[in-house]
Each structure stands twice: as C-alpha cells, then as structure tokens.
Design a protein that fits this description.
41% helix, single chain, 140 residues, four-stranded antiparallel β-sheet, Hut operon positive regulatory protein HutP
Length: 140
Amino acid sequence: MEINLSRIGKIAMLAAMSDENEEHQIKSEVNNANSGFKLAVTFISGLSTDISRSFVKSIVGCALQNNIIRKSGTQVHAVLHAALDALKGVTHQVPAEASLKLKVGIVSDGDWVAVAIYGDSAFYPITNHERSSLSVMHLR
C-alpha cells in the first residue's frame, strides 16, 4: 500500500506514530532531494512536570540540529509555538505526576513547520492510554 506523503502535518503525525521500520521508510521517502520536505524524529519521556520544563528546548534543538529550520528568529519562533501547541494538546488533562513516553515528528517544507506528538501517558499502570497532538505554524 502506497501512502500519499504530500502534507507536512500528515508526514509529522505518521512519523510520530511509526515503529522503527515504518519510520525508516517514511524518512527515506521524505528526506530525498526531490521531496521538498525535511523530517526529524525525537523521543521524550518522563514525568509530565519534568517534560514541560525541557520539551521546547529539546524540540527546537532537534529542529536546528537536523536542518528542519534555520537559526532565525522567525523560524525558531514558529517551531517554539508549534511545539507548545502540540504539547498542550497531548498533555490536556494529564495528572501532574503522570508518566509520559512520547515520540515527536518535526517536518518542514520551507514555508511551514509541523510538530506531531504521539505516545502513552499513565498515572498508574492500569490507566495507560495513547495520546496524540499536531500543530502547524508558518515559518515566515
């Protein structure tokens, strides 16, 4: 089955939700010279209170290190807002000391940047459940 990878939000969410083999396939299709897209994936885990303190730095750092964005005020600002919006969506109604295990996909087409988050949250082992969120911001 062939998947249409023509929208940055979809690419970011698929990358965030992918297993290791799927991630490799998505990256090989997206990061080729002809696609016009750039994709990076990172993982963040810990207690919700700890993640909220380090999340934005991790995402901005990942975007810069993987050349998803340039080190300019407007592009860093866009990733910052997309990261905060996505984090707010995925942590909505999460207890303060819940454990989170999150995979983040960051994609840019040069004009827009998408940050997608997918993972698990649990306050107690039997309360474990999946969460996801997506935010897209303009880079210019």
